[in-house]
Amino acid sequence: MSKAFVPTAAKPGVITANDLREGHNVWMCEDGWTADPAQATLFEDEAIANLALLKAVGQSNIVVGPYLVEARRGPNGPEPTHFREAFRQRGPSNYFHGIQTAKQAEASNV
Amino acid sequence: MFDVRPVETDYVRHRAAQFRAQVERRLDGSLTEDEFRPLRLMNGVYLQLHAYMLRIAIPYGTISPDQMRMLAHLAETYDKGYGHWTTRQNIQFNWPRLVDIPDMLDKLASVGMHAIQTSGNTIRNVTTDAFAGAAADEWMDPRPYAELLRSWSTDHAEFQFLPRKFKIAITGAARDRALVAAHDIGLRLIQKDGQTGFEVWVGGGLGRTPMLGKVIRDFLPEADLLAYIEAIISTYNLSGRRDNKYKARIKITVHERGLDVFKAEVEEEFLNRRRDFHGADREALAIFRDRFAAPAFRNAPVDGYEAERARNGAFRSWTDTNLHPHKVDGYASVIVTFKTPGETPGDASADQMRLLADLAERYGHADLRISHDQNVVLPHVHKSDLPAVYAALQGAGLATANAGLTSDIIACPGMDYCTLATARSIPIAQEIATHFKNNGLEDEIGKLNIRISGCINACGHHHLGHIGILGLDRAGVENYQITLGGDGYDIPAIGERAGAGFPYDQVVPAIDRLLRAYLEVRADASERFIDAYRRLGPAPFKAALYPEPAHA
Q: How many domains does chain A have?
């Protein structure tokens, strides 16, 4: 569903995928891929986004299944607009596992 | 003692080595993801919402203590300390790294386990009654036939690229606990004129088009089992819809073409196929019968058990709900529920797995089963050992007396893990179970089967729940449809949708109103929810779910 998303200035988007070796979620950022969705590049132009997506597809030795998905500009970086992406960014609700543990570790180091 | 370890360990090791080489080629860029994906799926490796997932086969839910300990080891070494029992009697690990999976498969192979055909359009794990070989109402143990089907279907060259996945269930008991009517092929062991055979069902399944199967053969002599199953699947292989994934299951083939047309082709093909079977299957079956021979049951007094029941109310309550009648006097099958209110249905920690392995060895003739309702069964426990088993389970948080009750909820992983999901399942299950624990109504409500799926694919079997809950995405918000009147056991039935869906935070209040209405309208305490629903129809229950707005 998300793969057909076309970003515009009014409805920007991010590119996200899974890390090939580890499997965790990653987002395309200025200098590659990040596990922190707040660092993701926000695309507002269809052509630039599609070019970036092509680049992501070409990095299949690093990531799996890259796709464009809607995001909104938030005070600390891109934020999800759909609950599926919100869960991908937060981790499961039944255990404190996955991406949320990395966020907590980062917060405690600040 | 039986031996569940498959004999083809060398083959399993070979497959693990093959997958290791495939992973290496994927990592070094020799294989693209499009090339690698079908290879990893053939070995049970999915890419889910947060991570890879490895689904490991537990043939017909039967597992030995050393295999269970290996699962515990994998949970601790490569996952986050736990595994998840699935509704098809398998186990899933939610967090493995791709680079670790070859090591996991090697270790599984060392105990005769694997992940072959736990995904893909192949014949999946053959499932059966979790009380097989033990149940008082069983007249023949179906596991030798299940093992025959497993060994025949594993790597069956003709059936590696079926139109869609294919699921077979088999039962040998009076009460169908294997859900034969909800499988692509369902088999009921029966006897006719002194001869053993099968009533063969075809075309059942849940998912987006739920259908109960139809009987394609009233009586199939047992000697013809593989030839007939092969005839059904080869007929489907040619005539199944490959043009549309959503119409590719055999249930649609049978429905669209008609049972009579399909059956005629199967019967013709059966005559051809039968010529190819020269007795090797009969020899294999004889070996499997030996492998599944009943353990050496002991004859001992049960006075201690009765005394403990009289003395300890909690133990009595647990024995009232969590035991299943055994065919041998003095024995019972123990249902260890992984449904403690507030916990994730079907999740087992490594320590819990090890405890179960120890208990099975010490008290349970070294036999363990994974049930389709995401619990574990110790099929053969002498009643004199039950106080000790109960005490050990209590220490591991596994002695909840709720088998078959409101909190014994079947739930798929939902959007907390699954990439196909449209809404979450687990927290809904947790909240319902906690709610009815806290309000103290669970015992009063009695037997109830709630099942939750996080998408239309129905891994939580919501259609077969007395109360079914289906999580959907409605305009970007989680929304839950409720179905009523489903049954997977006594009178197989697909539940009917009650009405409009509920937002996430309204599901528990809706179920609360529904069950309080049931308590009001039931004839007496012995009338289960499903019985009251059948007697009264949906009206009083819909009225409870959708009350008229109060007017000032």
A: 1
